[in-house]
Amino acid sequence: MPVPSSSLSVPPLGGVPTGGATYPGVVPTNPVITPPLYTPPLYTPPVVVPTTTTTPTPTPTTQGPSPAPKCTGGPSAQQLIAVVEGTPGIPDEPLKVTTGPFCSGNWQFSVMEIVADDAEDEYEPLAVVTTGLPAALKLIEAGADVCSNEVQTQAPIGIRVRACGA
User: How far apart are the first and last CA of the chain?
Assistant: First the structure.
């Protein structure tokens, strides 16, 4: 029995019939797949990021002892030079006080140098530690390094800071 042409449609070349007609045993090759619908949650809790604050540990600022201050009542530069001149190991050249004197108790610290005849002459500074009253000074040490055992054990702390650095 013939099938009316209006109810059948001829499939296109891909093999899928058009219209509402289907052929038994023929599976469509491009089925339409509908992806599942995504519905976002109605409430998203906020993300809490913990904050850490680091407080630096304070470093104690411990200052060492203070160096001896400038002398207010002497000795003079001439008194210091007089006690050093003629000492063995000290050059027999004119000297001048370049730093100090600094006093603590009956102790003094100063720095001297040879008076240069020529601007090109350079001499090593001469550190000097003395003790006693300005009119009767006693030389304890004179040289490039005056941090002797006597200075370390008997000098006041302010003189040790100047002579020894501590």
Answer: 125
- The rounded distance, in Å, linking the Cα atoms of 20 and 71 is 119
Which of 144, 142, 105, 99 lies closest to 125 in space, CA to CA?
A: 144
Q: How many CB atoms lie within 10 A of CB 82?
A: 13
pTM assigned to the model? 0.61
| Cis bond upstream, residue 46 (ω within 30) | no
- Which residue in the block uniquely carries the two structure tokens 């800071």? 161
Q: What distance in Å separates the CA atoms of residue 4 and residue 104, rounded to the nearest whole number?
A: 131
Phi, psi of 112 (to 5 degrees): -125, 165
Write down the H helix ranges in 38-128: 77-84
Residue 125: C-alpha distances to residues 8, 72, 90, 118 (Å): 121, 23, 11, 16
Strands 95-104 and 138-143: unpaired
Q: What is the pLDDT of residues 42-79, one digit of tens each?
A: 776 777 777 777 767 776 666 789 999 999 988 999 99
Please, are residues 166 and 158 in contact by the beta-carbon 8 Å criterion?
A: no
Q: What is the DSSP letter of 62?
A: -
CA distance 44 to 142: 83
> Cα–chain-centroid distance for residue 63?
18
